[in-house]
Design a protein that fits this description.
By secondary structure, the chain is α/β, with parallel strands linked by helices. It is built from 17 helices and 16 strands. It has 4 domains: 273 residues, Alpha-Beta Barrel (TIM Barrel), CATH 3.20.20.70; 27 residues, no CATH class; 64 residues; 113 residues, Alpha-isopropylmalate synthase LeuA, regulatory domain (Double Stranded RNA Binding Domain), CATH 3.30.160. About 1% of the residues have low confidence. The structure holds 3-methyl-2-oxobutanoic acid and zinc ion.
Length: 512
């Protein structure tokens, strides 16, 4: 058995299914390039047949990323598979990922198919896919809750048709580590041609055990691929977190004995990019990438770490990218230094005009803030992408008045399809007044389901990063905005969310 563990990242597909985490094509491209820098083996770029937008994203990523295999999800039917294969055509290395539910519950209630029909569809769909591409992954959806005898029958058949990876999802996060590990082990020993495929684990985090279950699938079950997402992003309680899996396998190499291709020093930048793009804030005590992950507050711990670091640290913060947490640029930094730092952070801005625009914004920020951190640059560039493209709404300026004992009032100037408009309103506070001022003009009718402010680099001089989550007609979107003035950041975030509400096309969901 190989001693290489394949890291399959599905942030852009399963992660994006998280309500409000939908990303634009440019945002996905930027994250895909960062995943390539991180040396992820396989990037699941989307679900090409679910919408034209997803098709274009998968295609753009397949055109631009060279070093990772690019994968598209597809339901096990000819139309979806052909569409996914079409999107993957430009890929240096492409993979089709077919899925079909195999649990009694899903077959009967969701698919309304008999087990024999499911068996036949699984077999024929892999046969069809294999004629289009050599690298085929098959996932029996809700695999962990499927009847093992039936599952063995299906898996043997799809391997015989040419599936090269077998992925066993715990779709609803029901598994327990020991049981899941043994489940994979039993499947591998019972399926006669199991050695012809790489076995993969895909765990959801509903009971908080996605990482533990995945590791058990590797250690007990012998799986050699883990499907995961940055920051554990994903529907409900999320997916298995990439950074935790990677650091567990690296830190406990004595136990797992496995090799990884991942370049861990890019973990933190990737985590931040995903968090800032989606508006899903990373909790401070999150393993590996949380703000406190390497902070020692207690005197005894601090003293111990100063004397010998391994008294209380099992990983080195700089190995996952924390050393970048220092002043990187300032007011006197030039355009070249700015451009180089963007490249080091994995931000690929396409045109010189875009760089000039981002640099002008950087200079503006440096005038107001003496120390510029990597976090500021990432926020500034993600703000650049969400607020200054060809969107419906764009922020221009804001003025507001608030005084103790008086009701605050705001006036916001913004563009609607390139035309300048002004909205005015009072409100409970300056943020409330500003967002009501925008809404008084836009009349979106959207309900705000989340508003959060985060100080990007931890001081009052810091930029505030605001996330606004809006819900309208069953759709949920996140908008993110950053500025040293949190009222301005809030207005930008609100306009960014309105842009997403305005532009996002309907999709087919992967889990029925
Ligand atoms: O959780 C799941 O079952 C999935 C499949 C589509 C692989 O994401
Ligand atoms: Zn999933």
């Amino acid at each position: 058995m190989s001693d290489k563990l394949i890291i399959f990242d599905t942030t852009l597909r399963d992660g994006e299914q998280s309500p409000g985490a939908s990303m634009t094509r440019d945002e996905k491209l930027r994250i895909a390039r960062q995943l390539e820098r991180l040396k992820v083996d396989v990037i699941e770029a989307g679900f090409a047949a679910s919408s034209n937008g997803d098709f274009e994203c998968v295609k753009a990523i397949a055109e631009s990323v060279r070093d990772s295999t690019i994968c598209s999800l597809a339901r096990a039917n000819d139309r979806d598979i052909a569409r996914a294969a079409e999107a993957l055509k430009p890929a240096q290395s492409g993979r089709l990922h077919l899925f079909l539910a195999t649990s009694a519950l899903h077959m009967e209630k969701k698919l309304r198919m008999t087990p024999d029909q499911v068996f036949e569809q699984a077999r024929l769909s892999v046969r069809f896919a294999r004629n289009l591409m050599a690298d085929i992954e098959f996932s029996p959806e809700d695999g962990y809750r499927s009847d093992p005898d039936f599952l063995c029958r299906v898996l043997e058949a799809v391997i015989a048709e040419g599936a090269t990876t077998i992925n066993v999802p715990d779709t609803v996060g029901y598994a327990i580590p020991e049981l899941y590990g043994n489940f994979i082990k039993d499947l591998r020993s019972r399926v006669p041609n199991s050695d012809k495929a790489v076995w993969s684990v895909h765990c959801h985090n509903d009971l908080g055990m996605a990482v533990a279950n995945s590791l058990a699938g590797v250690k007990i079950g012998g799986a050699r691929q883990v499907e995961c997402t940055i920051n554990g992003l994903g529907e409900r309680a999320g997916n298995c977190s990439l950074e935790e899996i990677v650091m567990a396998v690296k830190t406990r190499k004595d136990y797992f004995g496995l090799e990884l291709g991942i370049d861990a020093k890019h973990i933190l930048a990737t985590s931040r990019m995903v968090s800032q793009t989606t508006g899903f804030v990373v909790q401070p005590n999150k393993a590996v990438v949380g703000a406190n992950a390497f902070a020692h507050a207690s005197g005894i711990h601090q003293d111990g770490v100063l004397k010998a670091r391994d008294t209380y640290e099992i990983m080195r913060a700089e190995d996952v990218g924390w050393s970048a947490n220092k002043i990187v640029l300032g007011k006197l930094s030039g355009r070249n230094a700015f451009k180089q730092r963007l490249q080091e952070l994995g931000v690929a801005i396409q045109s010189e005009a875009d760089i000039n625009q981002a640099f002008a914004r950087f200079k503006d920020l440096a005038d107001r803030k003496s120390e510029i951190f990597d976090e500021d640059i990432l926020a500034l560039v993600s703000d650049e992408c969400v607020s200054h493209g060809n969107e419906q709404y764009g922020f221009i300026s804001l003025s507001q008045h608030s005084e103790t004992g008086e009701r605050p009032h705001a006036s916001v100037v913004f563009s609607v399809e390139g035309l300048e408009v002004r909205g005015q309103s009072d409100g409970n506070g300056p943020v409330d007044a500003s967002l009501k001022a925008i809404e008084s003009h836009v009349k979106s009718g959207a309900e705000m389901v989340l508003y959060s402010v985060n100080a990007i680099s931890g001081s009052t001089e810091s930029q505030g990063e605001v996330t606004v989550r809006l819900q309208n007609s069953g759709r949920v979107v996140n908008g993110v905005g950053a500025d040293p003035d949190i009222v301005v950041a809030s207005a930008k975030a609100y306009l960014s969310a309105l842009n997403k509400l305005h532009s996002k096309a309907d999709r087919v969901a992967a889990q029925g």
